[in-house]
Design brief:
The chain has a domain of 174 residues: Rossmann fold (3-Layer(aba) Sandwich), CATH 3.40.50.300. The chain is built from 11 helices and 10 strands. The protein has a 6-stranded mixed β-sheet. A 4-stranded antiparallel β-sheet has the order 2-1-4-5, with no helix packed on it. Helix 3 crosses helix 4 and helix 3 packs parallel to helix 5. The chain is globular and about 60 Å long.
Length: 284
Amino acid sequence: MAIRFTKISYIYDADMPYFHNALKSVNLEIAEGRITALIGETGSGKSTLVQHLNALLVPHLGRIEILDHRIEAGKRNKGLKQLRRDVGLVFQFPEYQLFEATVLDDAAFGPMRFGYSKSEAKKRAADALISLGITKELFDRNPMELSGGQKRRVAIAGILASDPKIIVLDEPAAGLDPAGTKLLEELFVSLNRERGKTIIVVSHDNDMVYSCCDDTVLMANGSVVYHGDTLALFNDRTLIDENHLLVPRLVELKNRLQEKGFKVPSSVRTIDDLAREIAMECGS
């Protein structure tokens, strides 16, 4: 098991009269080598939970085991530099991570901090940027001059360049056009299937979650209300209605086709797969 949360609680402004109990005795295990989504309404605790993964936040109660690392409430936790090398976190707002003078220098900052030579760090940064559609013509630009979607991809590249074992992305598709979102989905799958990376994605984009995430954690009011197979979640009408989830468009289309008599396997999760199934049925 890559990650285990045991009775994790976290309170914002704990000593103030307007405190907010963001996480409430959360127990959760996230499997290694899979793509896992965290979903739920705004304020459900998703972003707070993932900020515990590299000790940006430390729990008020409970403990977290991440690979060979352990973080416990009330204790002085050691080895945080190695933890942050093993767990790369991309923030929801890319401006929080962009501060160097050029795009290439920004993406190379992480690997240089973790001990790579300047030349090797820049090579890793260039490879990561290109994999995300950032062309060489942009390498010498100030990252703050880029579009919102480009800034997000540069921030992600800076994490990929350090080659972490676990990659955590908070709302990675925000600000991206459909083509950029598709590129991101393909990258997640490639990093997971071909390089064995554990991917954790916080998202409100249920279309993306349905398309590429193996497992989904559904949160509400600081607690986990579902953890399991993504396809099973979006086929559970009760859970969908109780938690006000938007149904992925592909699921809506499958449901309508089934109402018309088409036999659509529940395992279908992309529009290309759905088109093949319909073509096979119509040709039979």
